Amino acid sequence: MDKIKLALPGEFAAIVEEIAPGENTFEENGEIYSATIGVPTINKEKRTLGIKSVKPLAALRRGDIVIGEIVELFESIAQVEISSVEGNKRTALANKHAFLRISELEKGFVEQLRDHIKTGDVLRAKVIEVNDLGTYLTIAFPEYGVIKACCSRCRNYMELQRDGYTFTCKECGSKEQRKTPTANPE
Ligand SMILES: [Zn+2]
Question: For residue 158, which of 69, 152, 162, 167 is within the disulfide window of CB 3.0 to 4.6 Å?
Answer without folding.
Answer: 167
